[in-house]
Amino acid sequence: MQRRLHFFDFTLLACALLLVGLGSLAIFSASAGGLAFRKQLVFVTVSLAAMTVLALTNFELFDRLAPWIYAGTLALLVAVFVGGAHVRGAQRWLNLGGFQLQPSEFAKLFLTLALASLLAKHQAQITEPLTLLKAFALMGLPALIVFKQPHLGNTLALFAILFGMLFVAGARVSHLALTATLGLLIFAVAWKTDRIKPEQKRRLTAFLNSADVRHRDENWQALQSRVAIGSGGLLGQGHQRGSQNQLGFVPDNHTDFIFAVIGEEHGFVGGALVLGLLTVMLWRMLVILRDTEIVYGALVASGLFVWMAWQVFVNLGMTMQLLPVTGLPLPFVSYGGSSMLSSFMSLGVLQSIAMRRRRMTF
Q1: Which DSSP string do the residues of 8-47 spell out, in sequence order?
Q2: Is the dihedral of CA 350, 354, 358, 362 positive or negative?
Q3: What letter does residue 330 receive in the DSSP assignment?
Q4: How many CA within 13 A on the CB side of residue 236?
Q5: Tens of pLDDT, residues 248-303
Q6: SS3 for 336?
Q7: C-alpha distance from residue 351 to each of 158, 284, 292 (Å)
Q8: Which pick of 72, 116, 185, 286 has the fewest CB atoms within 10 Å?
């Protein structure tokens, strides 16, 4: 074990903990030191324990358990429609004794583990269309369930993971491009036939017409977020002194729009610090991917990297009104038990891969 601990990535863990610290500081400010802050501390404690357990577990066990992991993920996603809680017209959460579990957050990790198993077993046939179809079928069914909840952000995240892992596995770029084109056509048909819910349409059309006053209500959240970030200047307005956030102009400022709080109260310096930590974190994930000699481990690492990179890109883009609002939290920074727990669980799996990146020789 001591030999394996030599490969533990302390830089990766340090980045995550610093992001948690900055996020908790912003949550304290956004919630005036209230219940959200205290609950976040509990979430972090539980998440660190889960990360430790997974780091000490041989990640190759997940390869053997892949069918059960996949079946369990589908069961959780379907259970949302049976006894899930309704919030703002969406049904994405399960109530578990006062805690709301969001299965689609964990699906990003669990489906990565299952898809990596499929691709590792079909590595020699990765350029064949049949392998591509199997991969899309595996990810497509749960993605469709997530889309029906509805959660467009996590649906797109699942497909980003799929394409990223197929690319790393060696699938033909032409096949991926053809599949992406087909996906866009299906999306267009879904739009025309009203398979996409009205509120999702309004978000997308409002973003494309952000200068139109008729879409002011739909763009209010992103617009106020951009104003908050811009008003922070170089050093910010100070902890608990950001007017946009303290006066409630930015809805969901402690969850999806936490970066607006950091930008307003700590300015360009605070925002740059968050971006720097996220960049180093993603770089360390790439290092683990590069150095892993076990195919299954490399594929899992690639999926987790794409997940984190995609979510960071989308969250920061929507808080600065550069992308549509899709409801994706900022990893390790935003408030939320499911997001925090799934993120640290992914970190635990990555640490397990890092410590076992090479076969032990004696």
Answers
A1: --HHHHHHHHHHHHHHHHHHHHHTTT-HHHHHHHHHHHHH
A2: negative
A3: P
A4: 24
A5: 777 778 888 999 999 999 999 999 999 999 999 999 999 999 999 899 999 999 99
A6: coil
A7: 22, 11, 11
A8: 185
Write down the residue that tokens 């290092």 correspond to. Answer: 287
pLDDT above 90 for 159: yes
- 8 A C-beta contact, residue 354 and residue 7: yes
Largest CA distance in the chain: 70
Separation between Cα atoms, residue 346 and residue 303, nearest integer Å: 10
What digits encode the pLDDT tens for the residues 318-350?
A: 998 888 888 899 999 999 899 999 999 999 999
Average pLDDT of the residues in 3-31: 90
Note the pLDDT tens digit of each residue in 137-156. 999 999 999 988 888 889 99
How many whole angstroms separate alpha carbon 165 and alpha carbon 152?
Answer: 20
pLDDT at 262: 94
Amino acid identity, position 319: T
Question: How many CB atoms sit inside 10 A of residue 171's CB?
Answer: 21
Instruction: Give pairs for 282-288: CB < 8 Å, separation 24+.
Output: 282/308, 282/309, 282/312, 284/9, 284/11, 284/12, 284/15, 285/12, 285/350, 287/9, 288/9, 288/12, 288/350, 288/353, 288/354, 288/357
Q: What is the amino acid identity at position 38?
A: R
